[in-house]
Amino acid sequence: MIGMYPVVHRLRTTVVAPWTIFGLGDTASRPPRRVLLYGIDGCGAHFIAGRLAAELSEAASIDAVVVDDTDTIAQRNPAELLTILTAPAIDEVVLVAVSHAPWDLPPEAFSDGGFERFVFVPPPDWDARRFRIWETAWGRELSTAELDHVVVATEGWAGCDIARLGERFNSAVDIGELVSAAREGAPESAAWLDRARTMVSEFGDRGRLDDLVGYLQRYRLL
User: Is the dihedral of CA 164, 169, 173, 179 positive or negative?
Assistant: First the structure.
C-alpha cells in the first residue's frame, strides 16, 4: 500500500512478528488473537485489515478473520460482540476487527478478555493523501506543483473529506479556489478527532490507546 508506514510498522512488529516467532516454536511468545483497527471513515482501516489478514497467513501461517461490521454489531447488541470476542473458535484464528466509532463499543472490549491489540489508523499521511487526490478525475488535472499544494492544504484530512472536496471540483479546477476550499478545514475529521479526544479523556488506561494519544498530542488536540 502507499503511505501509512507507521501503521504498517506497528502491525508488523506487534501482530505479525509475534505470530511469526510463535510459529517458529517460541512458546514464550504471546501473540494477540483479537486486534482492533480503529479510525475515521475513509482512512483505509478496512483495506489495512485485509492486508494484515493476508500477511498473517503468508508470513505466520495463521488464519485471520476480518470483522468489518464491528460498529453495527455493537450498536445492535453489545453482548453479541462480546460473544464473538470470547467464542472458543477465536482460539484457532486471529480476529481483526474494524471500528469507526470505538467509543460505542462496550467497555468490556477494552478490558481483559476483550481486544488485546489496539491500532489507530490516522488520517492519510502525505504519500497516501497525494495518491488519493491524484487518482481522482480532478486530481489528475493538476500539475505536480499544484497537486503538492493541495496535499499540504489537506493535512489531517480523511478520505471522506477529500471525497467531499472533490464533489466541489469535479470538472474544471481552479487551483486557487481548490486550495482556498481545502484550507476551510475538514469537518468530518475534525468532528471525529474531537469525539476521540473526549474518549481518551474518559478512558482509564491510556496505554491501550497510546498511538491515538500520540497523534492527538502531536497536533495539540490533547
Answer: negative
> What are phi and psi for residue 61, nearest 5 degrees?
55, 40
Confidence at residue 175, expressed as pLDDT on a 0 to 100 scale: 76
Please give the tally of structural domains in the chain: 2
- Cβ–Cβ under 8 Å, residues 160 and 167: no
**Is residue 201 in a domain?**
no
Distance CA 122, CA 112 (A): 25
- Please report whether residue 60 resides in a domain: yes
In angstroms, the CA 16 to CA 23 distance is 11
DSSP code string of 1-54: --S-HHHHHHHIIIIIHHHHHHHTT-TT----SEEEEEE-TTSSHHHHHHHHHH
**DSSP state letter for 173:** -
What are the tens digits of pLDDT across the range 72-84?
A: 999 999 999 999 9
CATH number, domain with residue 89: 3.40.50.300
Closest CA to 133 of 122, 120, 143, 121: 143
Q: What is the pTM of this model?
A: 0.89
Question: Is 164 domain-assigned?
Answer: yes
Q: What are phi and psi of 29, to 5 degrees?
A: -70, 140
Write the DSSP symbol of residue 183.
Answer: T
Which range marks the domain in which residue 53 is found?
Answer: 5-122
